Amino acid sequence: MPHSPTPEHDHKAGHAHAAHKPRSDHAHNHGHQHDHGHGHGHGHHHDHSASRYLPLALLLTLGFAGVEAVAGWWSGSLALLGDAGHMVTDAFSLGLAAIAARVALRPASARHSYGLRRVEALTALTNSLFMLAIVALLLWHAVLRLLEPREIAGQTVTLVALGGLLINIVVAWLLTRGEGDLNTRAALLHVIGDLLGSVAALASGLVIQFTNWTPIDPLLTMLICGLILFSTLSLLRKVLHTLLEGVPEGLSLPEVGRAMAGVPGVRSVHDLHIWSLDSRRAALSAHIVLSDAQHWPAILEAERHLLHERFGIDHITLQPELPAAEPMVFVPSRSAAATDRR
């Protein structure tokens, strides 16, 4: 029985799985068992992700949220109060993201054979839904403020909003340093929304300070809510695609299947599945119908190399198969048929 080569160690800590015992479809359809051999390649992983800055971002965001809340209440600015509330939710989101980043690093176990990498996507989903609730709340208060305008201390709003803008720029810069996963991108989305909120509050303060036109405060709040809503829905779509195990963006299932079927010695590929383990790693499984079982080790290595180099897929499970045997067909000979006719 041929054995697959042990996968090489690589910097992505990828895994390759190969079934060693080719089988025919005929045997499989009758419930015969087939053996699987697995090889694992483990590499040392250094944390280059932006998630390592989440705790610092949390402290900066939560600290300034208190300042904005007090200033917004004193000045009567909806934009400042909305931005303060947004920063509090940001702090909550960043805290969730920081916890998720830690949990996602836990190794695979007997209960969770893939590890807990999907926690990143679940946290991003929670943050996205939370963000939609905040947008709805801000829009509601903006409408009420348009119907019942209030006096606003423009100078206070301007100074505090400027400070909030600087804090959000620093936090956004931290979260863009390194590789961004869905979890960090969701947290960054909150921070960008907060940054836009600070811009709106700053513009509101300046307009009110120099023109005393208070409707600018809720109007700019509504504009920023629209921008945040667009980004949130885009992220939500990606998160749901990952959780529903859709084919990762940038990969085409037909293209991958045709490329795999083009490897010499392969007759066809079927039961091909590609999905995301997390926002950075894709997994693949497929059944490979071989022309000759003796060539399986070389075919396995060629498929692994193809999937890694061309498509960036390292977590692979391949099941080799022999083509289904042709059934035995009996036909009467010509002489026998002629005798029967007589």
Outline of this structure?
This protein is an alpha/beta fold and 342 residues long. It has helices at residues 25-29, 54-75, 78-103, 119-147, 154-175, 182-211, 216-243, 253-261, 296-311, 334-341; strands at 15-18, 23-24, 37-40, 266-276, 282-290, 315-322. It starts with 14 loop residues before the first strand and ends with a helix.
Question: Key terms for this structure?
Answer:
single chain; alpha/beta; 10 helices; elongated; Cation_efflux_CTD_sf; Cation_efflux_TMD_sf; Cation transporter; zinc; zinc ion transmembrane transporter activity
Please describe the biggest sheet, giving its number of strands, its sense, and whether it closes into a barrel.
Answer: 6 strands, mixed
**What letter string, H or E per element, gives the SSE order?**
EEHEHHHHHHHEEHEH
Q: How many β-strand runs?
A: 6
Strand content: 5-15%
* Shape verdict: elongated
Q: Report the radius of gyration as a whole number of Å.
A: 30 Å
Structural class: alpha/beta
Number of helices, counting only DSSP H or I runs of 4 residues or more: 10
What does this protein structure show overall?
The protein is an alpha/beta fold and 342 residues long. The protein has two domains: 53-107 and 114-244, Alpha-lytic protease prodomain-like (Up-down Bundle); 253-321, Alpha-Beta Plaits (2-Layer Sandwich). It is built from ten helices and six strands, in the order ββαβαααααααββαβα. It has helices at residues 25-29, 54-75, 78-103, 119-147, 154-175, 182-211, 216-243, 253-261, 296-311, 334-341; strands spanning 15-18, 23-24, 37-40, 266-276, 282-290, 315-322. The two termini are 54 Å apart.
